[in-house]
Amino acid sequence: MRRRLSLLAACTAGAAIGATAHTAHAAPLPPVRVILVGDSTVAPGNGYGDALCARFVPEVACVNLGANGRSSKSFRAEGRWDKVQELLREAGSFHVQYVLVQFGHNDQPGKRHATDLVTEFPANMARYARDVRALGGVPILVTPLTRRTFKGPYLRDTLAPWGAATRRAAAAENVAVLDLNAGSAAAVQAMGQAEADTLAEEPAPPPAPDGKKGKSKFDWTHLGPKGAALFGAMVAGELAQAVPAIAPYLASQPKPKPKPDQAPQPKQRQ
User: Maximum Cα–Cα distance for the chain, whole Å?
Assistant: First the structure.
C-alpha cells in the first residue's frame, strides 16, 4: 500500500524533492504546462490551485481552470473541458502537458450537478483520463479534498467513497492518482476542529447578541490562504512522488505574490 504522507511530510516533500532534483539538473529544463481541472476546492480565490501553481519553477506554465460548483458532469457539459482540449492541441513548445483532474464535492447527492457514484462518476473520471492521453497529455486523477466537519472529536470524511471511486478509475485507466482525500483527512483529523477552522476562507463570525449569525464566507469546505498553502504543498508532495518526471519542476519555496505595481508581464513565446 502506498505510504500516506504525514502532515509534516505533505507540507515539505514536494519542495524538498523539487529542490534536490532541480539542483542536480545541469541542463535547462524544457518548458512544460500543468493544467488544473476541478471544483471550488481547486479554483482561484477559494481553493488550493493557485498555491500549487506557485510551487512550480518558471519553466512551468500552470493554468488553473478550476470552477466553483462544478461536478465531473457539469464541467464537461458547460464546455469548460473544451478549453482544456484546446490547450492540449496547441502544445506549442511545451515538452509535456500534465492535466490534474479533481471532482467529487458537487457530484454528491443533493447537489445541482450530482452524478451516480457507482456508474456515472467513475466513468466521467476515466473519460477525462482517456481524453488527455488521446491528445498527448499526461492525465493525473486527484481524489477530492476532505471537508473539515467533525462529529465530536472525529472527522466526518463524507467524500471517502468518491476518493475510492477516483482511485478505481485511475487503476482502470493505468494513470497516476494523488490521494488528496486520504492525506487531507489525516491532516485535518490530527489538528482537530478548532485548528481546522483556521484553514477556512474567513474566520467563523462570533455569535451575535441577538443569536443571529453574521454574514461570513466561513465554511468547512473552501480555503483561505493558510488552507491553500497547506493543501497546495500536500498536492505538490504527492505529485513529486507519483510522477517523478515532474519533481525537478517543483521549487524549494512557493513564488511570492507580486505587489500591485509589480504585476507579472506575459511571457513571450519563443
Answer: 65
Residues in the chain: 270
Residue 179 amino acid letter? D
- Strand arrangement of the beta sheet that strand 32-38 belongs to: 60-64, 32-38, 97-102, 138-142, 176-178
CB 182 within 8 A of CB 163: yes
CA dihedral 219, 222, 224, 228 (to 10 degrees): 150
**Cβ distance 90 to 33 under 8 Å?**
no
In the chain, at which residue ranges do the beta strands (DSSP E only) sit? Answer: 32-38, 60-64, 97-102, 138-142, 150-151, 154-155, 176-178
Collapse the DSSP code of 101 into the 3-class scheme (helix H, G, I; strand E, B; otherwise coil) and give the result: strand
pLDDT, tens only, 151-160: 999 999 999 9
| pLDDT tens-digit series, residues 73-110 | 999 999 999 999 999 999 899 999 999 999 999 999 99
